[in-house]
Amino acid sequence: MPAPTARPTESAESVKSAASTAPVKSTKASGSAKASESVRPAGPASPPVPSADVRMWHRFLALHAHVEHRLSTALQRHHGLGLSEYRALGFLAAAPRSELRMQELADRLGLNQSSVTRLVGRLHAAGFTYRDVCPDDKRGVYTVLEEAGRARHAAATATYEATLTAALEEAAENDEGAGATLAALRGTLG
Question: Considering the domain 55-189, what is its CATH architecture?
Fold first, then answer.
């Protein structure tokens, strides 16, 4: 097997020589030619500084993610419910006759049809809801809250509220901007 060949390296002299023969940009000023330094390509551009609205929105999303994580963890640990399941039970409990069409539940939860179908399947398997056919439209399906679902939602509400309050207070203590924002929201919303 032949020995690997060494890669040629440029000597300091050849680099200097190449630099001295680099093209020179000339400009005309007052009718005479004037040489200036060669133009080098710019390095990587620094990212633009986000606007105040973008920075505010990112902080809001970070606060939202923190609070949702805390809520989700507490509800799962203490009540065996995911956050979307808890919210679905809440929407059903507040609805007239404790029932909603599947599409309406999906819209309120901000979920697509496939996701809400799986969620309702879990609630049904746990005995918290049942499905009923819409009397006016045989293709329409209602999700109806069972008493077990109402009881689980009621039991989980105290955990939800206590965890929410603690997470918001923690955020306000650790982030001055979040504290000011929360105080303003509380003042506006009463």
Answer: Orthogonal Bundle (1.10)
